Amino acid sequence: MNALASLQQLFTRNLRQSGIFIAFAAIVGLFAILTDGVLLNPGNLTNIILQYSYILILAIGMVIVIIGGHIDLSVGSVVALTGAVSGVLVIRGGQPWWVGVLAAVAVGLAVGAWQGFWVAYVGIPAFIVTLAGMLLFRGMTLQVLDNISLSPFPDSYKTIAGGFLNGFLGGQGYDVFTLVVAAIGVGGYAFSAYRSRRARIAYQQAVESLPLFVLKLVLIGALVMAFAYQLSRSRGLPIVLVILGALILIYTVVTTRTVFGRHVYAIGGNLNAAQLSGVKVKRVNFWIFVNMGFLASIAGVVYSSRSNGAQPAAGNMFELDAIAAGFIGGAAVTGGVGTVVGAMVGGLVMAVMSNGMQLMGVDQSIQQMIKGLVLLLAVAFDVYNKRRASTAPDDRTIKAKTPKAPKAAPADGEPVGATR
């Protein structure tokens, strides 16, 4: 009975964690068929990475905000503001590209500290603070740019989002360097997954069988190498993909292997318990928003580089795409649940859907409706899982034994234990 319960628990957990991967594979397969294979063409795959990289960068920070039980509505405006600051310095001021990048990052950190102060130390809900920030920073963007667009950036700045690493190791019709980098990434992932599995076994936690574990690694490795091969046939390894990959690796370690990451999950899962456990809630909440400001500045630099200019309307509605990526990727609406990898897959789901519908010529209004339905279904799935988990019987429940009737009290003068 215990084995059956363990299998059921393992299946439920795997369904929650792996369901988004299955859905993503199904969506890719569907649009590959509907677009007659154009979706998976080398050039189109490269364009998907270039066009949606800044949304994925925002999604990394947003999922941490959501795990902590908050929301950030200002990231689109922060993207615009940081891109505007960089544009004024590099385009109008003639400064080197790295000066613009550093200035944008400094502004993003200042914005994050500003919002983190009001949320963490003053106690204003993040929804209100970031809603005010959305208006405030959009207005500051208009002031910085004087209500006009600035362009173009120099080639050195445009390389951030439009450059490629290729040709280092040669190759006929494909770039060997791209394949080598992908192979190293697959090897690192396999080693990390193996260590994680051994740790779970050591703590007597349920894990999938060894053949299933190996099959999962083989499938993931094959998909990554196939994707890398398609990129190598186009223009090679995009620089922005290297930036994104480094951020994914760093923040996966931060959320799973550091004290800060564990505290974020604790705060989002049960605020009162976290406070009683000695977690410095105010400090953690402050740094959650500082981190979001930092990643929004990186996204602002990437977006301005990609669009080759700084526009007052840049970043419009980006916050909704980042929030949708987090929820579709498995983050819980109440906080305490979510992963960086899940947010990336959620963002890719939105990216593939948008790109596929564009290739099919679907009207923009229909695209928005479909995205909204997908987001609604993802949150509904999370709510359904929570209800099922709350109503499921606990495996540790012990059947209650029928209590024995208490012995009658001895009569006056009768010795204790005497039989009547």
TrEMBL record:
Lineage, broadest ranks: Bacteria, Bacillati, Actinomycetota, Actinomycetes, Micrococcales
Recorded name of the encoding gene:
gguB
Report membrane topology: Multi-pass membrane protein
- Where do transmembrane segments lie in this chain? 20-39, 45-66, 73-91, 97-114, 119-137, 176-194, 206-229, 235-254, 284-303, 323-352
Region annotation (Disordered) maps to 391-420
Keyword Transmembrane among record annotations: yes
Keyword annotations for this protein, in alphabetical order, are: Cell inner membrane, Cell membrane, Membrane, Sugar transport, Transmembrane, Transmembrane helix, Transport
As for subcellular location, the record says: Cell membrane
User: What is the organism field in this record?
Assistant: Cellulomonas chengniuliangii
Checking InterPro entries in the record gives: ABC_transp_permease (IPR001851)
Q: Which superkingdom? A: Bacteria
- The name under which this protein is listed is Xylose transport system permease protein XylH
Quote the function comment for this protein. Part of the binding-protein-dependent transport system for D-xylose. Probably responsible for the translocation of the substrate across the membrane.
Tell me yes or no: is Cell membrane among this UniProt entry's keywords. Answer: yes
